[in-house]
Amino acid sequence: MSFIHQKSMTVGDWLNYSLLGLIAIVSLFPFLYVLSLSLTDPSTYTPLKFYLLPDKWSLASYAYILTTDSFGNSLKSTAFITVAGTVLNIIITFTMAYGLTKKWVMGRNFFLGAVIFTLFFNAGIIPNYILVKEMGLLNSYWSLIWPSLTSAWSLIVVKSFMESIHPELEDSAKIDGCTDIDVFLRIIIPLSLPAIAAFTLFFAVQHWNTYFNALIYISDTKKWTLQVLIKQLVIEADASGVGQQGSSDEVLVPQETIRMASIVLAMLPILVVYPFLQKYFAKGVMLGSVKG
């Protein structure tokens, strides 16, 4: 009989849902256009035509761009930065956050204050560039990983999450003979899996979408990330970077469909992974933001 207690929809509710639904539908059109244009057969492509659905379907743009050296190199670069960066982000963030939860740790207040300080003040682009240069990291993948091993916001949220775990669990483990490292690996980490899943996706998306730092730290075109390559294709309207070649008798793949195919390929991995980790978002973050 629970349906008796359900609140009936008001006119305002219908208007709100209708407006939100309309906005959602309108927001899908750019994605539909990009996908449709990327699947358009080169022989039927017409410049400046709006493609809601392709006149003729084809995977020629995807087949072409996946065989180019530039896209392959940028994909490898982005994949390495994403995997290595995310793993190090999780390790550094959770180990440091755990240390900050212990009041007996020497220098805890100093390090916690330093973390909070960075929320309000940032060195800026030029000092960061000089630091990366003096460390000899220019034109290295590590220039996109080491300077961003963690963030103040991530540390504070994870620290709050760990403080919400009942300390009696740690006390019981220590009575059984566990060391601090054993407690961290056997108690804290298993209980932190929702937060780990959420922050894994946060960090992975951050590294996968690396653009500005890659633009200023990486000048070697063979080490470009996907976002820098797509900027070259889309914003600068230059598809020569992917090696548009062929004989006069061939139907060349239009640059516009190459651009759209590259955008879809850049979004695809995150779109595939996101649904599997979405359920951990609210649980992983909210448990770290509310303590009581």
Automatic annotation (TrEMBL):
CDD domains: TM_PBP2 (cd06261)
Primary localization class, coarse: membrane
Keywords on record: Cell membrane, Membrane, Transmembrane, Transmembrane helix, Transport
PROSITE patterns membership: ABC_TM1 (PS50928)
Superkingdom of origin: Bacteria
InterPro entries, alphabetized: MetI-like (IPR000515), MetI-like_sf (IPR035906)
Localization per record: Cell membrane
Domain ABC transmembrane type-1: 75-276
Residue spans crossing the bilayer: 14-35, 79-98, 110-132, 183-205, 258-277
Membrane topology of this protein: Multi-pass membrane protein
Signal peptide location: none
Family that this chain belongs to: Belongs to the binding-protein-dependent transport system permease family.
Name the UniProt record assigns to this protein: Carbohydrate ABC transporter permease
Source organism of this protein record: Paenibacillus baimaensis
